[in-house]
Write a structure and sequence with these properties.
The complex is a heterodimer. By secondary structure, chain A is mainly alpha-helical. Helices cover 71% and strands 3% of the residues of chain A. Chain A has helices at residues 23-49, 53-65, 68-93, 101-119, 125-154, 158-180, 209-228, 230-240, 242-247, 252-279, 290-300, 305-328, 335-355, and strands at 13-17, 356-360. In chain A, helix 4 (101-119) packs antiparallel against helix 5 (125-154). The two termini of chain A are 19 Å apart. Chain B is mainly alpha-helical. Helix content of chain B is 73%, strand content 0%. Chain B has 14 helices and no strands. Chain B is globular and about 55 Å long. The chains are: A mainly alpha, B mainly alpha.
Chain lengths: 367, 327
C-alpha cells in the first residue's frame, strides 16, 4: 500500500501519524462510521430478505422500546453487558488480554447457584444472599488470578490461557448440572422456585431494578478508580510501557495480579447478578458470549466507563432489535450477529482515520 | 477391546482433521505476525460457503457430475473463506486496527453468517426442513476403494475422504515452505521483526496479506471437511461448536510447526471424544473428561513460557500492527 519499495514510482499517497485529534472531530468520525455501518447493514438486510430496511429498523426500535417490559429487558441486558465490560476494562487498559470474562462470569454464577442449591431455605435470605455474593466474587477472582499469576511469574500468554479457562468453566458447569439434576437432563430448572431463597429481592416492583442500580454504582466507582486513584494511574502506566513502570518504581507483577483480582471479582459479581437477580438458574449459556462482546464494548469506549454505557447500549440495542426482527420477519436470529459484526468492523476501521492522516501527493509527478 | 481402541483411533483422526486445517491456517497467519482470533468464524464461513455451493449445484441439475460436485463446493469454500479473511486483512494490515478486537468481531460475524445461511438457505428457495446434501456429502466421503481389503488397519487409517489426506499434505507442504524456501524465510522475518524485513526490501504488507488470506482459506477447508465429510452434507446451527478455538490452542501445542500440528490435532481430536470410549463413566464424569484438551493446552502454554527455549516461542511481533514511521 503505502510502502511500495519500487524506486522509480513514488507512491500516490503516504500515511503519517496524527497528533491527538480534537475530541469532537473524533466523535464526528465515529458517528459517520456508525451511520455508514447502518447503511451497509440496511443494504445487507435488503439483499437477504427483500424487506425495506427502514421498515426493518423501525421494527428493531419497536422491538427494543415497544413496551415497558421490553424496555426493562433492554436495560437489564445493557446492565449485564456493561458490568462485564467494566470488569475487563482495568485488565485491558493494562494490556492484559482477559479473554476469559466468559468463564469468570460462569464460575461466579456457579458459586451462587451452588449456594442456592445446597443451602436451600435453611438460612435467612439476607445471609444466604451475602454468602452467594462473597462466594461468586471469590470464584471469579480465583478464575481470573490464575492466568495473572503465571503472566506475572513467567510471562505466560494470557489471552490463550484465559480463553482456555472459559471452556474449563463451561465443563465445570455441565458437570455440576449433571450432578444436581437427577434425571440426567442437561437443563437445570429454576432453583428454589417455591421458597425463592437466594433470589435478589424485587425493588420498586421491578425485577431488574436492583441489578441496574448495582451496575450503575459500579460504573461510577470504576470511573473514579481508573481516573483518580493511584492504582488506576499505575494500571495505565503498566499498559503504556512496562519498562517505564519499572523505572519509576511500580511493582509490575503486583499491579498485574491486583488488577486481575479486580477484573475477575467484578466478573464474579456479574455471575451473581445473573443467577441471583435475573435467571435464578444456571446454564452453560449464562454469559451468552457477553465475555467477548464486553471486550469490544470496552475497546470502543476507549476504556472510559461512562462512554461504555453508550457503546454497550448500541450493542444491546442491535442484538435485542435484531432478535425482534428475526421473529417479526421470520428470519434466522443470527442476523443479530451479522449486524453487530458489520457495525464493529466500521467502528474498528474508523479509528484509522482518527489516528492517521493520509497525505495525497500535491502534484502528479512526471514518470 | 482391540476393536474399541481402533475405533477410538479412527474417531480421533476424524475429529482431528478439521482441527488440523484450522491449526495450519492459523500457524501460517501467525508466522506473519497476525494473531487471527477470527479463525473460528472463518471456519464457519468456509463450511457454509461449501454448503451453499453444493446446494446450488445439486439443485441446478438432476444429473450430477461427481467431479463438479466436489469442485464447486471446494471452490466456493475457498472463495468464502478468502473474502472473510480479507476483512481481517484490510482492517488490521491496511487500517492497522487492533488484532484481538478485529479477530473477535470477525468470529462473531462469521459464526452469525454461518448460522444465518444455515438456518435460512432453504427458506430462500421456498423449501422447509434442514439442509442435507447427502449426494455431495457422498462424493466427499468417497474413500479409497481397496481399504476394506486391508482389514482393521484399512478401516482405521484409510477409510477417509480425500479432504483428510489433503489436510496432512497441506500441513507437510506448509512446513517445507516455511522452513526451506525463500518465501517462508521472508514470511518468518516479517513475523519476527517487520521493521528489519522492511529494511531488507521485503514487502511487509504483501506478505501479511498473503499469509493471512492463505491461512484463512486453509482454515475454511476445515469447516468444509466438517460439513461435507463428518456430517455428510448436513448443516446444524452451531454444530461446529468450539472447534475453532481448539485449533488455535493446537497452534501452541504444536509450537508453531505445521508438521507437529498433524499429531497434535489427532491427540486433541482424541481428547475431544475420549469420554465416549472410556467404559463405565457416569454422565457427570464425562463432562469433567471433556476438560482435558483445554487443560492440556494450558499446561503446554505454561511449560513453553517456563522453559523459554528460543525456537519454541511465538513470532516476536505477534499481535502488533506494523507502521513504518513508528519504530
Amino acid at each position: 500500500m503505502n510502502s511500495k519499495t519500487e524506486h522509480i514510482k513514488e507512491p500516490l499517497f503516504h500515511i503519517t501519524k496524527r497528533d491527538q485529534m480534537i475530541w469532537y472531530k473524533q466523535w464526528i468520525i465515529r458517528t459517520i462510521a456508525i451511520l455508514a455501518a447502518l447503511v451497509v447493514s440496511g443494504i445487507v438486510i435488503m439483499v437477504l430478505t427483500k424487506y425495506n430496511p427502514l421498515k426493518v429498523y423501525a421494527e428493531m426500535f419497536k422491538g427494543s422500546f415497544g413496551s415497558s417490559r421490553k424496555t426493562w429487558i433492554l436495560l437489564q441486558n445493557l446492565a449485564m453487558l456493561l458490568c462485564i465490560s467494566l470488569a475487563v476494562t482495568p485488565a485491558f487498559k493494562m494490556k492484559f488480554w482477559n479473554l476469559g470474562a466468559e468463564g469468570q462470569v460462569l464460575v461466579g454464577g456457579l458459586a451462587s447457584a451452588a449456594c442456592m442449591f445446597y443451602f436451600k431455605d435453611s438460612l435467612p435470605n439476607a445471609v444466604l444472599i451475602l454468602i452467594m455474593l462473597v462466594g461468586s466474587i471469590a470464584a471469579g477472582i480465583i478464575w481470573g488470578v490464575i492466568p495473572a499469576l503465571f503472566k506475572a511469574k513467567w510471562n505466560t500468554n494470557e489471552s490463550l490461557f484465559t480463553l482456555m479457562m472459559n471452556y474449563i468453566a463451561i465443563q465445570l458447569v455441565s458437570f455440576f448440572i449433571m450432578v444436581w439434576v437427577p434425571s440426567g437432563s442437561s437443563v437445570m430448572g429454576v432453583i428454589n422456585q417455591s421458597s425463592e431463597a437466594g433470589w435478589l429481592p424485587i425493588v420498586f416492583d421491578q425485577k431488574y431494578f436492583l441489578n441496574i442500580l448495582i451496575v450503575a454504582l459500579l460504573t461510577a466507582a470504576m470511573f473514579v478508580y481508573l481516573k483518580y486513584s493511584k492504582q488506576g494511574y499505575e494500571i495505565s502506566v503498566v499498559g503504556e510501557s512496562q519498562n517505564t513502570a519499572r523505572y519509576i518504581g511500580i511493582d509490575v507483577k503486583k499491579v498485574i495480579i491486583r488488577t486481575m483480582v479486580i477484573s475477575g471479582g467484578v466478573c464474579g459479581l456479574a455471575g451473581f447478578l445473573l443467577v441471583s437477580g435475573t435467571n435464578h438458574t444456571i446454564s452453560k449459556e449464562l454469559a451468552g458470549g457477553m465475555g467477548f462482546t464486553a471486550i469490544m464494548v470496552s475497546w470502543l469506549a476507549k476504556f472510559n466507563p461512562v462512554l461504555m454505557v453508550i457503546t454497550s447500549f448500541l450493542i444491546v440495542f442491535l442484538q435485542r432489535g435484531a432478535g425482534e426482527i428475526a421473529t417479526a420477519f421470520r428470519l434466522n436470529e443470527s442476523v443479530a450477529d451479522i449486524l453487530t459484526g458489520i457495525i464493529l468492523f466500521f467502528i474498528i476501521g474508523c479509528e484509522f482515520f482518527i489516528n492517521y492522516k493520509i497525505n495525497f501527493k500535491k502534484h502528479k509527478e512526471v514518470k | 477391546m482391540i476393536n474399541t481402541i481402533f475405533a477410538f483411533l479412527n474417531a480421533a483422526i476424524i475429529q482431528g482433521i478439521p482441527l488440523l486445517y484450522g491449526a495450519v491456517g492459523e500457524i501460517i497467519t501467525e508466522k506473519s505476525g497476525n494473531l487471527n482470533l477470527g479463525i473460528p468464524g472463518i471456519m464457519y464461513v468456509g463450511g457454509i460457503s461449501g454448503i451453499i455451493g453444493g446446494y446450488l449445484y445439486e439443485h441446478s441439475t438432476s444429473n450430477m457430475n461427481p467431479f463438479l460436485g466436489i469442485l464447486i463446493p471446494f471452490l466456493s469454500c475457498l472463495l468464502g473463506s478468502a473474502l472473510i479473511a480479507l476483512i481481517y486483512c484490510f482492517l488490521t494490515i491496511t487500517l492497522r486496527a487492533n488484532q484481538n478486537v478485529t479477530g473477535l468481531a470477525l468470529t462473531t460475524f462469521g459464526v452469525g453468517l454461518g448460522n444465518f445461511f444455515g438456518g435460512s438457505l432453504l427458506s430462500f428457495f421456498g423449501e422447509t426442513g434442514s439442509i442435507s446434501l447427502y449426494k455431495t456429502g457422498g462424493y466427499f466421503k468417497a474413500a479409497l476403494p481397496f481399504y476394506k481389503n486391508l482389514g482393521l488397519f484399512g478401516e482405521t487409517f484409510l477409510s477417509f475422504g480425500f479432504l483428510a489426506y489433503l489436510a496432512i499434505l497441506v500441513a507437510i507442504v506448509s512446513n517445507i515452505v516455511l522452513k526451506k524456501t525463500r518465501v517462508g524465510l521472508n514470511l518468518r522475518a516479517v513475523g519476527e521483526n517487520p521493521a528489519t524485513a522492511d529494511a531488507a526490501g521485503i514487502s511487509v504488507t504483501k506478505y501479511k496479506y498473503l499469509s493471512t488470506l492463505v491461512g484463512g482459506m486453509i482454515a475454511g477447508l476445515g469447516g468444509l471437511y466438517f460439513v461435507m465429510d463428518y456430517t455428510a452434507g448436513a448443516w446444524t446451527n452451531n454444530g461446529f461448536g468450539d472447534r475453532g478455538w481448539l485449533a488455535i490452542a493446537i497452534v501452541i501445542f504444536a509450537i508453531w510447526k505445521p508438521a507437529s500440528a498433524i499429531f497434535s490435532s489427532f491427540i486433541f481430536g482424541g481428547l475431544y471424544i475420549i469420554c465416549v470410549y472410556i467404559p463405565g463413566l457416569s454422565s457427570s464424569a464425562k463432562e469433567l473428561i471433556k476438560m482435558l484438551p483445554y487443560l492440556v493446552t494450558i499446561i503446554v502454554l505454561i511449560l513453553i513460557s517456563m522453559r523459554k527455549k528460543r525456537e519454541n516461542q511465538p513470532p516476536e511481533s505477534l499481535g502488533l500492527s506494523y507502521f513504518r514511521e513508528e519504530r
